[in-house]
Amino acid sequence: MRRKIVAGNWKMNGSKGLVSNLVGQVRSELASFDNGVEAVIIPPALFVDDVVEQAGKKLAVGVQNVACWSSGAYTGEISAAMAKDCGCGFTLVGHSERRQLFGETDEQVATKVEQALASGLVAVICVGETLEERDAGKAEDVVSRQVRKAVADVGNGLWQQVVIAYEPVWAIGTGKTATADDAQAMHAAIRAVLMSLGAPADEVSLLYGGSVKADNAAALFAQPDIDGGLIGGASLDASDFVSICRAVPGKS
Q: Which residues are the active-site ones (predicted)?
């Protein structure tokens, strides 16, 4: 069975107070039900130690980015091995904000995937098209290219560490969301790409990201190829985040 994952990306938000209040509340509320979901908190790197300390067994922790290198004179960078050493199990790779604002290329994304997998992290590979690309009928081509390049060097024994998050760029932080049918269609296309590469496509978890909220999560997660969500703003509210976790099918 594919892993069911709901990951909260705090982006450049947070404080020690938020960690103390939100992580503890989420941990406590998740203890009251078990639908098989893996809940992941992905804070800014400065707060990773604090989140790890608060997380307990019900929460996993990730980082928002890792370097292309394992060590060296790269001021300001964080290696995948460092993240693992600090208690992280996940890392985002190739988030649209990294691609758009910092010029991260498909080649850099592939290198970061390699670093993450080598260090034992689960790489949550973010892919997605802009509104212009969608309107031009290029959405599937763009996403297919991003997936193929990101996983080109994934070895046969490492697919269990690969998660792909489809996040249409036009739906991130805008309040707009792809319909459940639209999201499912792209997830099915991603799974077909993985199959064409010889990957165990039915075992790779695919997440949807793009203004997921408590009131639309159930419809999205009910789709056959959507295995959870990459949550932005709603992950900064404990009640909203827990409600989204509860929306994963299989809730007891």
A: 95 (electrophile), 167 (proton acceptor)
95 counts as catalytic: yes
132 catalytic, yes or no?
no
Query: Could you report the per-residue pLDDT of 60-71, keeping only the tens digit for each?
Result: 999 999 999 999
Q: Which of 29, 38, 95, 97 is catalytic?
A: 95
Alpha carbons within 13 angstroms on the beta-carbon side of residue 101 total 5
Domain ranges of the chain: 4-246
Which residues does the annotation place in the binding site for substrate?
9-11, 173, 211, 232-233
Answering whether pTM is above 0.90, one says yes
Give the three-class secondary structure for 148.
helix
Of the residues 97, 133, 167, 187, which is catalytic?
167
Encode pLDDT of 130-157 as tens digits.
999 999 999 999 999 999 999 999 998 9
